[in-house]
Specification:
The N and C termini lie far apart (56 Å). The protein folds into three domains: 105 residues, no CATH class; 148 residues, no CATH class; 129 residues, no CATH class. It is 50% helix and 8% strand. The strands form two sheets. The protein has a four-stranded antiparallel sheet. The protein has a two-stranded antiparallel ribbon with strand order 1-2. It is of the alpha+beta class and 445 residues long. Strand 1 and strand 2 form a beta hairpin. It has 16 helices and six strands. Bound molecules: zinc ion.
Length: 445
């Protein structure tokens, strides 16, 4: 007689689907992908109905099933742990179409369990295939004249990037179009072992955007001035002109994978405009925030650069304003946790005050807040000016700057809050107050 792997009780009926004692679906015990524990019965019922409906439609061949695939996938992410497991293992998402056709003869009352079994089957198939080392070659519009190779290698190391030379590509002789893969601008290489090229591309983009954000920040944020007019006026309001226009996948030997599909470079590489970035950050500026003993804070700062780039690269003024505002809000909530809007405004004022900005600018945060709400909640357009965008950009920059300059004084992100609260005191008072408050923090007990 068999025993249930979940509760060890004996199973008398060899055809039983469920354990009499604990009620588990026997075949699903010990599988990796499971229903979440706290899932409403309504959600499961919905998924069950959609499954039955789509199987019926498939049999009758009467509708475009892709709509069902999307729907089923979103339910699957909702009610199971699939997203976590797939991300962890870097897998491609599953083939819902294949699963549905294999469920055609399944028992309707067991459809949810049979479905999850098939999902696990696909997962096990994918996991048994090997990870492969792959590179992504990223084409930028950074001038090669800026290339002091060793300096660049150092700068991009924290972003997991390397400088890539065209000569390092491995071409088979017959590739006549080979020169189309050359670029007048700097190229970077991102390396990882992966099963899923799509996830690799999004990882590479995260790193390069984060690096672009860092470059933009260093070039556009002038620490030595209290003036806010440090944006170059451009017709399209864009602050960063850094772009990447192609991601080419190669194998370990730098041989282009699926050459034919990757010809996008041929049509785009020549058209990109050179970035006006003319100054490289110093190595010190990178070392300021890449602290090996504080990886969590360093990662947060990198993430903020990524968002900073997206806000700076946005050419619709209102969207850019909104993104810089959201970034500032995010940084403050990382530090303090959730807060009311009045507290948010207070902290924004604090960071400007601490940096010596005049009162009339600090008071403007109240106006920006109203404009932000009118834009987001009332869908009002045309209120936000470039001047507003510049000021909210300065807030975001001052906050990032604050994270970097105080990194040696904190053990975790919440301790920044203690420092920011007393940032405006005289230096002696500040030091005294901070050390007093830090004594009461649990980490020091
Ligand atoms: Zn059991």
């Amino acid at each position: 007689m068999e025993t249930c792997k979940n509760c060890n009780s004996q199973i008398s009926n060899s055809n039983a689907k469920f354990c009499d004692n604990c009620g588990e679906f026997l075949e699903l015990i010990n599988k990796d992908i499971q229903f979440k524990e706290k899932i409403s019965n309504d959600k499961l019922k919905d998924l069950k109905n959609i499954l039955l409906e789509s199987i019926e439609s498939m049999k009758n061949n009467n509708t475009d099933l892709r709509w069902y695939y999307e729907l089923i996938m979103s339910y699957l992410i909702d009610v199971t742990n699939i997203e976590k497991v797939f991300r962890r293992e870097e897998l491609n998402f599953i083939d819902i179409g294949w699963i549905l056709s294999s469920l055609e003869k399944a028992d309707n009352s067991l459809i949810l369990y049979e479905f999850l079994l098939k999902v696990n089957e696909q997962y096990e198939f994918q996991i048994s295939s090997n990870k492969e080392p792959m590179n992504i070659i990223i084409y930028t519009n950074i001038s090669k004249k800026l290339k002091e190779k060793e300096k660049f290698e150092d700068l991009i190391k924290p972003f997991n990037l390397k400088v890539f030379d065209f000569e390092d590509y491995e071409f088979e002789k017959e590739h006549k179009e080979k020169n189309n893969f050359n670029s007048g601008y700097l190229m970077f290489k991102f390396f990882k072992e992966t099963r899923a090229v799509d996830l690799l591309k999004s990882d590479a983009l995260r790193e390069i955007y984060s690096f672009f954000g860092f470059l933009t920040y260093v070039n556009k944020f002038n620490k030595t001035t209290t003036k806010t007019h440090i944006n170059e006026l451009t017709l399209n309001n864009q602050i960063s002109d850094l772009e990447c226009n192609s991601l080419i996948v190669t194998d370990n030997q730098n041989k282009i994978i699926r050459y034919g599909v990757q010809n996008e470079i041929i049509t785009h590489s020549k058209k990109i405009n050179k970035s006006k970035i003319d100054k490289l950050p110093s190595n010190g500026q990178i070392k300021d925030f890449t602290k090996e003993n504080k990886p969590k804070i360093s990662d947060k700062i990198k993430e903020n650069f990524y968002l900073y780039y997206l806000a700076a690269n946005e050419n619709i003024l209102e969207n850019s304003f909104f993104k810089f505002w959201s970034l500032s809000e995010k940084i403050l909530k990382d530090i303090y946790g959730d807060m009311k809007d009045t507290a948010l405004k207070k902290h924004m004022k604090n960071i400007l005050k601490a940096n010596g900005y005049p009162k009339y600018l600090i008071r403007r945060i109240d106006v920006l807040y109203i404009k932000r709400n009118n834009f987001v909640h009332e869908n009002k357009h045309g209120e936000i000016t470039q001047y507003d965008q510049t000021l909210v950009k300065v807030i975001a920059e001052r906050l990032i700057d604050f994270l970097i300059i105080c990194i040696n004084e904190v053990k975790n992100i919440n301790e920044y809050g203690v420092i920011l609260n007393y940032y405006n005191q005289s230096p002696e008072d500040k030091e005294r107050l901070i050390s007093l408050v830090k004594l009461t923090l649990p980490e020091n007990n």
